[in-house]
Amino acid sequence: xxxxxxxxxxxxxxxxxxxxxxxxxxxxWIGGWQGRAQPQIDHPQVVIFAGNHGVTAQGVSAFPxxxxxxxxxxxxxxxxxxxxxxxxxxxEVEVVALELDRPTADFxxxxxxxxxxxxxALQAGWNAVSPKADILVVGExxxxxxxxxxxxxxxxxxxxxxDWVGRGTGVDDAGLTRKAKAVDAGLARHADVTGPLxxxxxxxxxxxxxxxxAMARARVERVPVVLDGFIACxxxxxxxxxxxxxxxxxxxxxxxxxxxxARLLEKLGKQPLLSLGLRLGEGSGAAVALGVIRAAVxxxxxxxxxxxxxxxxx
Length: 314
Ligand SMILES: Cc1cc2ncn([C@H]3O[C@H](COP(=O)(O)O)[C@@H](O)[C@H]3O)c2cc1C
Ligand SMILES: O=C(O)c1cccnc1
Hints:
Elements: H1 2-12, H2 22-34, E1 44-50, H3 66-77, H4 81-88, E2 93-97, H5 115-128, E3 135-141, H6 145-157, H7 161-164, H8 173-189, H9 196-203, H10 206-221, E4 225-227, H11 230-242, E5 250-252, H12 261-268, H13 284-302, H14 306-309
Parallel strand pairs: 1-2, 1-3, 3-4, 4-5
Bound molecules: alpha-ribazole-5'-phosphate (RBZ) and nicotinic acid.
């Protein structure tokens, strides 16, 4: 009913029908999830989950694993890209570091996480969401996690390593081949694993599981979510494959430059709001898209109706 009320209000606003294009759809959608025809964004929440990955032993990143903990310190000191973008929206950056000194197991050798580790990471994500948030940006930091995301996507949707890997932090052709080989080895090792959550345990990582947990909690709290890039969408894909409609509360913030992001968005049935060639993660693309979402919300909520403004033709 909130969605219908928001759509009805949209139809009365002082503009030709549809003239605000996709902004209208976004404004109505936010109204539906917030349960009001005049949605607002006063309390955006930005949370970043960090984890380390055993699969980095396969030489899959252009950067060493220490960068994960170093970037966590940078987030806490306000020096990262996401800090600047969050500040633009009056949001703090909350950082949840998940056992950085205990990387997940190398998924080419065995399951990345035990069931208990997977549940703990899902719960960390679940617990991080503020029910008072009116929109949520979920970001990540974890050297090696574009390989993890590629492995998850390949296992959930089919295809080979080469179909799903990209250059991540900027690996060369040899690095790209090592990534594809690692994903293929993971697929072979975990060929008998079925079920999205079991796949998450076998091939995922703590920050990826935590992102999925946060997105699920947001759905329950009716908090709209802005999806970031390839890794965030791989986390979202676990929910999508587990439960139809699990991502109804999520909008794709942007199309990342990571090779297979377009294919992944297609699998999720999501159209990105922006395409700026970003390939950073941290929730940065989602935070940039938040500006567009705010534009949709101010129009939906602040415009006068034809009747209010005395404009003819509504
Ligand atoms: C300084 C720095 C800051 C980052 N912020 C996000 N990422 C991004 O890069 C990583 C994934 O790429 P790969 O799979 O190639 O390791 C993730 O940590 C992601 O968030 C960063 C990477 C670096 C080096
Ligand atoms: O799409 C992303 O989120 C991404 C791409 C490259 C590196 N880190 C993140």
